[in-house]
Specification:
Belongs to the pseudouridine synthase RluA family. By secondary structure, this protein is an alpha+beta fold. It has 2 domains: 92 residues, 2-Layer Sandwich (Pseudouridine synthase); 101 residues, Pseudouridine synthase (2-Layer Sandwich). 16% of the residues lie in helices and 34% in strands. It contains 4 helices and 12 strands. Strands 1, 2, 3, 4, 5, 6, 9, 10, 11 and 12 form a 10-stranded mixed sheet that branches. Strand 9 and strand 10 form a beta hairpin. The two termini are 21 Å apart.
């Protein structure tokens, strides 16, 4: 088991850098007890998640170490105060250098945990994006989700016609096999400290 990658720690907060291929919380299937939350609780029994990242996604994730801190952080997520940035490597080249995807999402229940766009029953999902760099076959995007729906960035990239490289759920075979991991990384997060009210910003270098 690799050690925790601690980005920040005080008596109220723990910010970790999650590797790809590790569950954020334990699953119901056998052999899924190991997760970032259980590792964080082994390090500090008071550590509790205030948001999640997908198994395949790497990057920054926040834990509250007191009940007061968790409530305050949770409210910041609910009120869209928290600012998050991701790096995504996608298949192909978008026609524009930047844009906004505003497509509502809901669970595709027969195929869960897959999500789908649904303009009648979906919940609001908004993502800003811009091109960072390109290769002959791929593009790196800076993505700024304004909402926090499950699989939001993955489905929105698929909607753009440029699925995330290595995405086992939403990418076609060629894009899926173009990298050994899903190329989505939570690279930056900003929020108010739950006690001091200081505006904090943390960053994580993209590993792909």
């Amino acid at each position: 088991m690799e050690p925790l990658s601690i980005v920040f720690e005080d008596e109220y907060l723990l910010v970790l850098d999650k590797p790809t291929g590790l569950l954020t919380v334990s699953g119901t299937s056998p052999g899924t007890d190991d997760c970032l939350e259980s590792r964080a609780m082994a390090y500090n029994p008071e550590a509790r998640l205030v948001h999640r990242l997908d198994w395949d996604t790497s990057g920054l994730i926040i834990f509250g170490l007191t009940a007061k801190a968790r409530v305050h952080l949770g409210r910041q997520f609910e009120d869209r105060v928290v600012k998050k940035q991701y790096i995504a490597r996608v298949w192909g080249h978008p026609d524009q250098s930047s844009g906004i995807v505003n497509q509502p999402l809901r669970c595709d229940w027969p195929n869960r945990p897959r999500q789908m766009i649904d303009h009648e029953k979906g919940r609001e999902a908004i993502t800003e994006w811009e091109v960072i760099t390109q290769t002959e076959t791929t593009t790196d995007l800076l993505m700024k989700p304004q909402t926090g729906r499950s699989h939001q960035l993955r489905v929105h990239c698929q909607y753009l016609g440029h699925p995330i490289i290595g995405d086992r759920m939403y990418a076609p075979d060629e894009a899926y096999h173009a990298h050994k991991r899903m190329c989505l990384h939570a690279s930056q997060v900003e929020f108010y400290h739950p006690v001091t009210r200081e505006w904090l910003k943390f960053t994580s270098a993209c590993p792909f």
